[in-house]
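Write out the bound-state structure for calcium ion.
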Amino acid sequence: MRVLLTEDDRMIGHAVQTALRQDGCVVDWVRDAESADAALLAGSFDLLLLDLGLPGRDGISLLRELRARRDATPVLVITARDAVEDRIAGLDAGADDYLVKPFDLDELAARMRALLRRSAGHGTAYLEHRGVRLDPGTREVTRHGKPVSLSPREYAVLEALLLRPGVVLSRAQLEDRLYGWSESVESNAVEVYIHGLRRKLGHDMIQNVRGVGYFVPREATAPDEA
Ligand code: CA
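---
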């Protein structure tokens, strides 16, 4: 999951970034609304974590503009005060969920997973496909009930593909899910992860459209269970 964190408080920002990275997320951190706006216009994120109280332009104004231009990025708002008006303003401006400071980092991660699921139209916690099951809560992957060991980046590629069955993701879109701004992209990295996933999960699991990208085929019938 690639996350844009907008938070001016250094301690909170650092704590959130560190915790989410340990959770396997790619996290880019900006300190104000203008930088967040620029980042959102430049790239795609699975989720925006937005502190409402920012120096200069506030989070609500950014959120309103985002929704006005039909940017549907899921937004989890972070408010400093437990004021009901703030929460209502955030939700009315287009936030999908909110947390009040101080919040528990595990709760933040759980809410983010739930948001990601809902935005992808999944009601259940698991992502399942052709006997392969991915549990975003524990990051465990099984195939026909047997545990499969994936590297963090193989996991990230698989999660991105399983969230949108039938949708072809380009190499650039997958790289976006694997690397933050500060990291350099290794050439052929995506191909290497796809190769690893196919070896561990079965060759048919991930298909490619030559010159376009990769996808997991949508299935008309129920997954074949072990
Ligand atoms: Ca703040």
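---
The chain has eight helices and eleven strands.
Helices lie at 10-22, 33-42, 59-68, 84-92, 105-119, 152-163, 171-178, 189-201.
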